[in-house]
């Protein structure tokens, strides 16, 4: 599905979005009160005309004083009858967010069951530039579709096919290095992690743009994670189709950058190390010492801490071009979820101005992020006795921070480095955010880039 607004139409029915206690509720006559409508969040009141047909509708936004709690509340409007509706928004409601909510609420993952969205359509609210809203929704829909697709249909071959399709759509160049060729290309840790799987490990390299500052996105693409020989319990594998959520988010962001025209003023590179962490006689082992592209040796103390290994080689490759900004996106640690929950991904950045821009942009566009520290005092924890680095420090404390410190070692050489430890999943349905795959951080980056790379 390609998310879009309906064209303006004289037949479009008015949809008034109202706060609790808004005088407009009373102005609509006695019907809303008689129907029990008060403007609570998500409430809908259909308004009849004189002949008993539809004259319009009211949609409750909730308490104006608590508006900051409610993300994408206008997505509730997708429960309206399947007609074309013209949104009429009150003062104090973010129009861009409201417009995006109307599109995000139309998402359905219908590949295996059910049907695609066939509900109401909405014209673009007055005062909103529709093009960037469409672009954000299109990128988010791509990310959700990729994450929601199970590993039997979204293995490394399939993720590569999706990347190639996007590259063709937006006119980007793409190159793929796979299987034993990874060793020839000096990407040994990507090969080591993925060599046990039936589908070969690979590094997908996409380029778009010919001038301006350099932006490099590195997305973790573990299409399924058994944990390797340190195998996960069955319950912990249930969501492991989403372990390629970093790669899916990077592709979604690339689509947003292309469709909004932001790619016209910068040189974008997307690096996706793509593997399955499987179990076979070829699996890498606990206790193995791997030599990375950077030359640093890594002792494998847990094969279930594989994401940082494949990211390390990709980050080293990306840093060799000294990009102005390099961002890694990865469903990396459970520690991040324990600390901040599923809605609020931590990010790490040593540059205060860049971190401030991301924090402010994330809050402004309802794609929140929370800055965490590259805490140098924990560096000794990632330094084992027999190798340069440890992929899984013992003790279990500060797991998201030590993972970020590990990755920073390989990002040296980039102008600025940001790491985002995302979840990539919506555990319970919310307006505009159905249960399932979810992009995190992409819209915050999109909104912050004019300040970070002017």
TrEMBL record:
<protein>
    <submittedName>
        <fullName>Leucyl aminopeptidase family protein</fullName>
    </submittedName>
</protein>
<dbReference type="InterPro" id="IPR048816">
    <property type="entry name" value="Peptidase_M17_N_1"/>
</dbReference>
<keyword id="KW-0378">Hydrolase</keyword>
<comment type="similarity">
    <text>Belongs to the peptidase M17 family.</text>
</comment>
<dbReference type="Pfam" id="PF21337">
    <property type="entry name" value="Peptidase_M17_N_1"/>
</dbReference>
<dbReference type="InterPro" id="IPR011356">
    <property type="entry name" value="Leucine_aapep/pepB"/>
</dbReference>
<dbReference type="GO" id="GO:0004177">
    <property type="term" value="F:aminopeptidase activity"/>
</dbReference>
<dbReference type="InterPro" id="IPR043472">
    <property type="entry name" value="Macro_dom-like"/>
</dbReference>
<feature type="domain" description="Cytosol aminopeptidase">
    <location>
        <begin position="302"/>
        <end position="309"/>
    </location>
</feature>
<keyword id="KW-0464">Manganese</keyword>
<keyword id="KW-0031">Aminopeptidase</keyword>
<dbReference type="InterPro" id="IPR000819">
    <property type="entry name" value="Peptidase_M17_C"/>
</dbReference>
<dbReference type="Pfam" id="PF00883">
    <property type="entry name" value="Peptidase_M17"/>
</dbReference>
<keyword id="KW-0645">Protease</keyword>
């Amino acid at each position: 599905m390609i998310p879009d607004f309906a064209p303006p139409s004289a037949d479009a029915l008015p949809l008034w979005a109202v706060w609790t206690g808004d005088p407009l509720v009373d102005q609509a006559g006695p019907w809303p009160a008689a129907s029990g409508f008060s403007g609570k969040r998500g409430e809908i009141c259909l308004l009849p005309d004189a002949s008993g047909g539809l004259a319009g509708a009211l949609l409750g936004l909730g308490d104006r004083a608590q508006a900051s709690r409610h993300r994408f509340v206008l997505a509730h409007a997708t429960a309206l009858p399947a007609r074309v509706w013209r949104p009429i928004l009150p003062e104090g409601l973010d129009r861009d967010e409201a417009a995006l909510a109307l599109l995000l609420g139309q998402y359905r993952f219908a590949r295996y069951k059910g049907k695609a969205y066939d509900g109401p359509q909405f014209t673009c609210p007055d005062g909103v530039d529709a093009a960037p809203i469409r672009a954000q929704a299109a990128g988010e829909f791509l990310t959700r579709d990729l994450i929601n697709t199970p590993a039997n249909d979204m293995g490394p071959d399939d993720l590569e096919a999706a990347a190639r399709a996007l590259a063709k759509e937006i006119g980007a160049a793409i190159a793929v290095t796979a299987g034993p060729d990874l060793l020839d290309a000096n990407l040994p840790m990507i090969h080591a992690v993925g060599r046990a799987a039936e589908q070969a490990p690979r590094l997908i390299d996409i380029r778009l743009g010919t001038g301006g500052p350099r932006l490099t996105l590195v997305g973790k693409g573990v299409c399924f994670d058994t944990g390797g020989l340190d195998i996960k319990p069955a319950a912990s594998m249930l969501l492991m189709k989403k372990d390629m959520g970093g790669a899916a988010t990077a592709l979604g962001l690339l689509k947003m950058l292309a469709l909004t025209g932001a790619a016209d003023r910068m040189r974008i590179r997307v690096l996706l190390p793509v593997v399955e962490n499987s179990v076979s006689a070829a699996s890498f082992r606990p206790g193995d010492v791997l030599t990375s592209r950077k030359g640093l040796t890594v002792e494998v103390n847990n094969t279930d801490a594989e994401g940082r290994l494949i990211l390390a080689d990709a980050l080293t490759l990306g840093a060799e071009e000294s990009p102005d900004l390099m961002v890694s996106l990865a469903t990396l640690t459970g520690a991040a979820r324990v600390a901040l929950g599923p809605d609020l991904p931590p990010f790490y950045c040593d540059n205060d101005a860049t971190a401030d821009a991301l924090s402010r942009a994330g809050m402004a566009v309802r794609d929140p992020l929370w800055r965490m520290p590259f805490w140098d005092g924990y560096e000794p924890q990632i330094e084992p006795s027999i190798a340069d680095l440890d992929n899984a420090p013992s003790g279990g404390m500060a797991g998201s921070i030590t993972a970020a410190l590990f990755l920073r070692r390989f990002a040296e050489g980039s102008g600025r480095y940001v790491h985002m430890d995302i979840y990539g999943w919506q555990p319970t349905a919310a307006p505009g955010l159905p249960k399932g795959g979810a992009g995190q951080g992409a819209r915050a980056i999109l909104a912050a880039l004019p300040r970070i790379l002017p």
